[in-house]
Amino acid sequence: MSLPVIDLNADLGEGFGRWQLTDDEALLSVVTSANVACGFHAADPSTMRRVCALAAERGVRIGAQVSYRDLAGFGRRAMDVPPEELADEIAYQIGALEVFARAAGAEVAYVKPHGALYNRTVHDEEQAGAVVEGIRLTGAQVPVLGLPGSLLHAAARRAGLPVVAEAFADRAYTAAGTLVPRREPGSVVTDPDAVTERALRFARDGEVTALTGELVAVRARSLCLHGDTPGAAGLARRVRAFLEEAGVKVEAFA
Question: Which residues have CB under 8 Å from 68's CB, separation 6+?
Answer without folding.
Answer: 40, 41, 75, 77, 79, 81, 86, 115, 116, 117
